[in-house]
């Protein structure tokens, strides 16, 4: 069964059309109404009253809230429960949402209860905007932008909806027929593209030899979010979190640099084995044009990563602040934890002659870290560069010493 | 699903070869005919692709050999995109391909997005990208195209079970999209009219829409905040519309002064190039929206209107109104089809009401007289003694629409 979620007061005609398309192809559908304003376009399989009731509230209570955002939060809570139940009963094969600003945030909240692998498609008028905040986006989301502010069902709107229905129909068929990820676990490695950090080439075979299946997260491309999400879902059973460029100290976070607020927290909460290293802590990533970078950073050493991003040097103060953040987050966690410091440099650019080389950096990091790190966390200093094979070998060795044998 | 419809698969085989070949197998397994196009710029390319990297480079006016010999990465990328776009357009035009999918990291996704944007609206386009989560990235990938974006969960590097799961789902999804509807039926019987609008001309937009729908037109609305109206220009250029009601062409001046609603250099041009009738008004043409962090001393002194907490409209200066009129006239004089302007004399939006700080109908006339002076004589300018949001102004627009759309 494919769940169709949306607000039947504002997007009712589009939802009806998707339902019709899916049913014409033989799919079973279930429409959940998350609307709270006007009259529903048609009666949903799960009408709004039922969504609200599942949260223990009444329609009147919602009506008297007077605040749309709060109403949507309650609708999301109710719809999430219903969707989670459908998933546990094994009936759900996919979910599609239709939304403007409110409908999209409703959908993202509900889709978050479904593990990776369950088809999730959103047809959204806000796909172009910053409403799709990365921390709210499920790691395997399929986003279909609504190109025009569609009024009613013009033939253009129909074509977009047909594509959306086709995508969720196909993905649901795969979910039914194909292999899923249930019960499988993986080791997660964080890294950057092969220019900046190179340990993966030695680390992956070493870990595979130990019997693990390894998956990589390119945190420079924003995969710190899916990394934390997959650890949270239990799909990742151990981490080698060796690249922390998206861990920004308070003085820098919120200024537009790549920064993932919950980094380095989930694995400790789950208590799974983790090996940490300060890969890439010599710089920040600026995911935009140079002209838009805050002025106080523009005078620093920097270089262009690729078409999409700039790297700009992390000051020694910020390196120390980052170390304190690492210590605080690791201290809060549980489970076997170790941190390895490659003393000869944190990235390919942190080498003599490199754009960000600074021989003091690893000392500053280590000093600040040691001052605060709990003795529960093993600290290993290694006289090697992060891109030396010796670093990869040591990381693999420490990981195997932390984790129960395979 | 087994009718052998073609699916174009775009990848750089030098870096994502294993993953692309796996995706091709899956598409084939679903009874489709995959056409793998290789955009590699390093290495010798992949002999297994249906469209080789060298063919792509040649279609772009170069060759793989030349690309290897050049260090100008930007121009190499341009060549590959141009070549791939022309091949893709041909395959779609000949009916060989009914959907397009790409897999890659940031560079591959950007190239694939450019190729997809060169293809007609409506044909399924799916990008599987590992950097989709980067803030604002979806905008930079898809721009204004109708491109579906699928987050790859992990780095596209090696065939782990996680990545296979992602690729499987993408294969099924793009095949599911490809047999959504037979192509070529996009245009229904009713004439399609594109309409631009902003919040401050909502009443007018809604009145015009209702009236046109009663006359049997289909009306597609676009928000004129920069992205929506840019998308509209692209869709007009693809021949999707029979007419345009451009209530809010402020993007023209915004482009010239670097405002937030900049709709690119080609705003107000596609309808003229296509020769379809256009009815134009002036909502927001007398306001500019430079980013606040770039305000100059002059901007800070301007009369302003706060649209909401985040957006402020500044009154355009007389010089800017003149510049805008010149840009309008330059673009509209080249139009191959009928053009009509309908301009309200008592304020150009709900922000321009008597008592509002930016209300200045006299200054608005600077634009009107300069425009009339420069426009070629067959373009008629009608002036209406009303505000943009008065019902009689919507009626005036509708009346002109009936004349030019029905003839």
Please, could you describe this protein's structure?
- The complex is a heterodimer of chains A (about 400) and B (about 400).
- Chain A is an alpha/beta fold and about 400 residues long.
- Helices cover about 35% and strands about 20% of the residues of chain A.
- Chain A folds into 2 domains: about 1-175, Rossmann fold, CATH 3.40.50; about 185-400, Rossmann fold (3-Layer(aba) Sandwich), CATH 3.40.50.12030.
- In chain A, strands 7-6-8-9-13-14 form a 6-stranded parallel sheet, with helices on both faces. Chain A has a 5-stranded parallel sheet with strand order 2-1-3-4-5, with helices on both faces.
- In chain A, helix 4 (about 70-90) runs parallel beside helix 5.
- Chain A is elongated and about 70 Å long.
- Chain B contains 15 helices and 14 strands.
- With about 400 residues, chain B is α/β, with parallel strands linked by helices.
- In chain B, helix 2 (about 55-60) crosses helix 4, helix 4 (about 75-95) crosses helix 5 (about 105-115) and helix 8 (about 200-215) packs across helix 15 (about 390-405).
- In chain B, strand 6, helix 8 and strand 7 (about 220-225) form a beta-alpha-beta unit.
- The interface between A and B is large, with 74 and 71 residues.
How is the topology of this model organized?
The complex is a heterodimer of chains A (406) and B (407).
Chain A: E1 2-6, H1 12-24, E2 29-33, H2 48-53, H3 59-63, H4 68-88, E3 94-99, H5 101-111, E4 120-124, E5 142-145, H6 155-177, E6 186-191, H7 200-209, E7 214-218, H8 224-232, E8 236-243, H9 266-270, E9 274-279, E10 283-286, H10 295-298, E11 302-304, E12 310-313, H11 316-332, E13 337-342, H12 361-372, E14 378-382, H13 389-402
Parallel strand pairs in A: 1-2, 1-3, 3-4, 4-5, 6-7, 6-8, 8-9, 9-13, 13-14
Antiparallel strand pairs in A: 10-12, 11-12
Helix pairs in contact in A: 1-6, 4-5, 7-13, 11-12
Chain B: E1 6-11, H1 13-29, E2 33-38, H2 53-59, H3 64-69, H4 73-93, E3 99-104, H5 106-117, E4 125-129, H6 137-142, E5 148-151, H7 161-178, E6 192-197, H8 202-214, E7 218-223, H9 227-237, E8 243-246, H10 251-257, H11 270-274, E9 278-280, E10 287-288, H12 297-301, E11 304-306, E12 312-315, H13 318-333, E13 339-344, H14 361-374, E14 380-384, H15 391-406
Parallel strand pairs in B: 1-2, 1-3, 3-4, 4-5, 6-7, 6-8, 8-9, 9-13, 13-14
Antiparallel strand pairs in B: 10-12, 11-12
């Amino acid at each position: 069964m494919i769940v169709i979620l949306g607000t039947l007061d504002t997007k009712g005609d589009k939802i009806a059309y998707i339902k019709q398309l899916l049913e014409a192809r033989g799919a079973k559908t279930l429409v959940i109404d998350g609307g709270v304003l006007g009259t529903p376009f048609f009666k949903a399989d799960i009408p709004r009253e039922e969504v609200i009731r599942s949260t223990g509230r009444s329609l009147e209570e919602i009506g008297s809230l007077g605040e749309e955002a709060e109403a949507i939060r309650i609708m999301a809570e109710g719809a999430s429960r219903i969707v989670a139940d459908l998933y546990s009963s094994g009936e759900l094969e996919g979910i599609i949402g239709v939304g403007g600003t409110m409908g999209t945030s409703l959908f993202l909240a509900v889709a978050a209860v479904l593990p990776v692998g369950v088809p999730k498609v959103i047809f959204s008028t806000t796909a172009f905007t910053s409403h799709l905040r990365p921390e709210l986006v499920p790691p395997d989301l399929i986003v279909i932008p609504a190109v025009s502010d569609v009024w009613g069902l013009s033939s253009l709107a129909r074509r977009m909806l047909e594509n959306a229905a086709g995508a969720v129909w196909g993905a649901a068929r795969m979910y039914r027929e194909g292999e899923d990820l249930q019960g499988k676990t993986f080791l997660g490695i964080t890294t950057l593209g092969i220019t900046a950090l190179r340990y993966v080439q030695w680390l992956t075979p070493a870990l595979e030899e130990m019997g693990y299946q390894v998956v990589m997260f390119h945190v420079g491309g924003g995969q710190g979010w899916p990394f934390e999400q997959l650890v949270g879902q239990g799909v990742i059973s151990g981490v080698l979190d060796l690249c922390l460029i998206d861990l920004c100290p308070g003085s820098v976070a919120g200024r537009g640099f790549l920064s993932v607020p919950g980094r380095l927290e989930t694995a400790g909460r789950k208590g799974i084995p983790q090996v940490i290293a300060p890969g890439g802590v010599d710089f920040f990533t600026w995911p935009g044009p140079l002209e838009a970078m805050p002025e106080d950073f523009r005078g620093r050493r920097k270089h262009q990563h690729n078409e999409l991003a700039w790297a700009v040097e992390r000051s020694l103060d910020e390196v120390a602040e980052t170390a304190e953040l690492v210590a605080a987050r690791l201290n809060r966690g549980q489970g076997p934890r170790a941190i390895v410091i490659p003393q000869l440099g944190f990235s390919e650019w942190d080498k003599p002659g490199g754009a960000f080389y600074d021989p003091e950096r690893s000392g500053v990091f280590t000093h600040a870290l040691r001052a605060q790190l709990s003795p529960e966390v093993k600290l290993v200093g290694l006289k090697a560069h992060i891109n030396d094979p010796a670093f990869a070998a040591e990381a693999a060795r420490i990981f195997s010493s932390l984790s129960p044998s395979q | 699903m087994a009718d052998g419809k073609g699916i174009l698969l775009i990848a750089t085989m030098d870096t994502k070869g294993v993953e692309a070949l796996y995706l091709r197998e899956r598409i084939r397994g679903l009874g489709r005919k995959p056409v793998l196009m290789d955009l590699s710029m390093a290495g010798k390319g992949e002999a297994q692709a249906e469209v080789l990297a060298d063919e792509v480079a040649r279609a772009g006016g170069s060759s793989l050999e030349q690309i290897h010999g050049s260090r100008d990465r930007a121009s190499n990328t341009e060549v590959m995109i141009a070549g791939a776009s022309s091949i893709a357009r041909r395959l779609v035009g000949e009916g060989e391909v009914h959907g397009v999918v790409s897999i890659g990291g940031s560079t591959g996704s950007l190239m694939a997005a450019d190729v997809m944007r060169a293809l007609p609206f409506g044909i399924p386009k799916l990008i599987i990208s590992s950097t989709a989560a980067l803030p604002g990235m979806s905008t930079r990938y898809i721009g204004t195209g109708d491109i579906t974006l699928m987050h790859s969960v992990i780095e596209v590097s090696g065939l782990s079970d996680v990545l296979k799961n992602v690729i499987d789902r993408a294969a099924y999804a793009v095949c599911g999209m490809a047999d959504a509807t037979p192509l070529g039926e996009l245009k229904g019987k009713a004439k399609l009219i594109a309409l631009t609008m902003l919040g401050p001309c909502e009443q007018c937009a809604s009145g015009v829409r209702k009236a046109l729908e009663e006359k049997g037109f289909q009306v597609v609305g676009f928000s004129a905040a920069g992205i929506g109206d840019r998308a509209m220009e692209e869709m007009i250029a693809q021949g999707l519309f029979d007419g345009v009601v451009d209530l809010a062409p402020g993007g023209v001046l915004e482009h010239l002064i670097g405002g937030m609603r900049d709709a690119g250099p080609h705003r107000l041009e596609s309808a003229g190039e296509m020769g379809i009738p256009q009815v134009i008004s002036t909502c927001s043409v007398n306001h500019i929206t430079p980013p606040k962090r770039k305000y100059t001393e002059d901007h800070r002194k301007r009369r302003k209107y706060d649209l909401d907490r985040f957006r402020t409209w500044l009154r355009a200066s007389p010089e800017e109104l003149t510049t805008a009129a010149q840009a309008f006239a330059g673009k509209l004089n080249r139009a191959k089809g009928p053009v009509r302007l309908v301009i309200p004399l008592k304020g150009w939006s709900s922000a321009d009401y008597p008592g509002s700080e930016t209300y200045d109908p006299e200054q608005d006339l600077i634009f009107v007289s300069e425009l009339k002076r420069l426009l070629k004589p067959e373009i008629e300018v009608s002036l209406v003694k009303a505000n943009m949001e008065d019902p009689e102004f919507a009626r005036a627009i509708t009346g002109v629409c009936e004349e030019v759309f029905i003839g």
